Amino acid sequence: MSKIVDAIQTLSSLEELASGNSLPHRLHPGVKIIVTFVFLIATLSPQRHHLSVLIGLFFYPAIIIPLANIPFSAIFKRTAVAMPFSLFAGISNIVFERDIALTLFHIPVTYGMISFTTLMIKTFLCVSAVLILIATTPSFNLFAQLRKFHIPQLLVLTIMLTYRYIFLLLEEAANMTLAYHLRAPNQKGVKMKDMGSFLGQMILRCFDRSERIYAAMECRGFDGEYHTEDNKPLTVKDLLWGTMLIGVVLLLRFFSLPQLFNSLL
User: Fold this and answer.
1) What is the pTM of this model?
2) Rounded alpha-carbon distances, angstroms, from residue 186 to 43, 84, 204
């Protein structure tokens, strides 16, 4: 029960962070989406053995998170959820790529270790960039801006409803878990013999609630399009900040941090 409540609070805290008034919050949503997209491309494009290229890209979360007054723990805790998936995927690199790439402090470092580290860093940077975008931009602004970018209506609507319905799904699960514990106060969790009926009832309740939600949306004039009254104009300041951030990201992508230091010295 507590885990479900924690999950709801985790998702809600991102919505609360998005209502801030810092410089990243005030930037135009379209600029933030483009900067995030460029950062993701710059992070994913290096080959698996080009570890030095990724070091400089840490500047993005290191600079934007303090500017946006976002607690580092809020980003790192959510990023840690995605790390195990890359961890299990990258272990095979250590097993199969055993050729020695270099020796560090008399310790042989294989190409598999380098590619594994590269994969973990890419995962951390990409997830952090997306979380920063969510934590600095209200969801309705994000979805409205995606439609302005001519992203297909069905795709935007699916993402929006899925994101919104996660809260309702967790709420239904929390209510059912609470009801189950009230009927079995000494039971920790749901028994395996009851799991089938528990999940079945939750699915039925979710279907029933989704129909009520859709009926309420139609009563409010829903026509399949996402409308919003928040039409923030694109200013010169937004363009300057966006151009600067994209320029720095591209500079660090095509010139690794050691190369930049050597050129300056």
Assistant:
1) 0.78
2) 49, 32, 27
